[in-house]
Amino acid sequence: MDRMKQSGAGISGKALFVVLTVLPVMFDQWTKILATRTLGGGEHIVLIPGVLELTYVENRGAAFGILQNARIFFFAITLAALIAIFYILHRMPEDSRYLPLRICLHLIAAGAVGNLIDRLVLSYVRDFIYFSLIDFPVFNMADIYITCATFTLLVLSLFYYRQEEDFAFLNRDKK
Fold first, then answer.
1. Considering 28, 118, 135, 143, which one is annotated as catalytic?
2. CB of 24 within 8 A of CB of 145?
3. 2 is catalytic
């Protein structure tokens, strides 16, 4: 039991990386390919009338289309975020207490990489999920990973990781 607690509930770091970073990136890219093939000609599919649609948009900006064509800026920000995430993951104890934090960081990395691939290969991000009920900007799976994981991180930091020593592993003096 102690060994299981020390190893993050029995999941190795490499397995967690594959399951929570590589597989979500692959799923994101697959859904974007499907969206491009199915919706790329201007088609759109109503899933729930007045609520949810699939429609294809090429986003050359960030969230909500801001900072159009700032490709180098997005690359730099994404690279900095990935370096920070993997630094934190490297320093984080292999204790099951940190598994929720570890999952969130892997999912944010997956979302960042998914959109980065689009920006590097296509110069834009393929978005296709549209909540027409609230006229929310069109988004994709990578955006969902980032948004849900960031929200969960916020909740965790407010209600679960509340002690200063919870993040002591980030101190340079300690490992």
1. 143
2. yes
3. no
Structural element, H or E, at residue 119: helix 99-122
Whether 173 sits among the annotated catalytic residues: the reply is no
Give dist(CA 55, CA 35) in Å, integer: 8
The kind and range of the H/E element at 129 are: strand 125-131
What is the pLDDT tens value at each position of the chain, 175 positions in all? 344 444 444 566 677 777 888 999 999 999 999 999 999 888 999 999 999 999 999 998 776 566 666 778 888 999 999 999 999 998 998 888 999 999 999 999 999 999 999 999 999 999 999 999 999 999 999 999 999 999 999 999 998 888 878 888 888 765 4
What is the pTM for the complete model shown?
Answer: 0.84
Nearest to 5 by CA among 89, 104, 93, 87: 93
| Distance (Å, whole) CA 70 – CA 124 | 10
**Among 127, 135, 166, 173, the one annotated catalytic:** 127
